[in-house]
């Protein structure tokens, strides 16, 4: 159940910080700059699409730097099509994390289509994502132990993603 980290190159340091948090919590993730195939291919679109399909979750790093990016919206779109669990990590470009009380102000900056999913704005929110991810993973393992293919498919379905989003939003 890896997490795909989507970001614009200008936000690489934030993406690395999130990946380090995942590594510290034993969460597998995909980050293009540590993937040899993505660095050497002539068909980056296929590599990105394949890796989104391999992941169950996607976190999109969103800042003022994201404006003008073609890849971040593409990656979010690909994850949406296949009902992945999607979150945005929104931060001010000068690096100062947002306070939860300012989320409504920041929502006005984010594209409207991102409001549908949980918006993470600080380290506490990343910790909530990690807790929900682990809970989601435990549920998936339980479903797999039942041996039912339909149960496993349901855990990756739109319903499973909707439950993840609902539970994470409630914990923020």
From TrEMBL:
Matches recorded under InterPro entries: TIR_dom (IPR000157), Toll_tir_struct_dom_sf (IPR035897)
Lineage: Bacteria, Pseudomonadati, Pseudomonadota, Gammaproteobacteria, Moraxellales
Pfam families: TIR_2
Record keywords: Receptor
Entry keyword Cell division: no
Signal peptide stretch: none
Record protein name field: Toll/interleukin-1 receptor domain-containing protein
Occurrences of domain TIR (ranges): 1-137
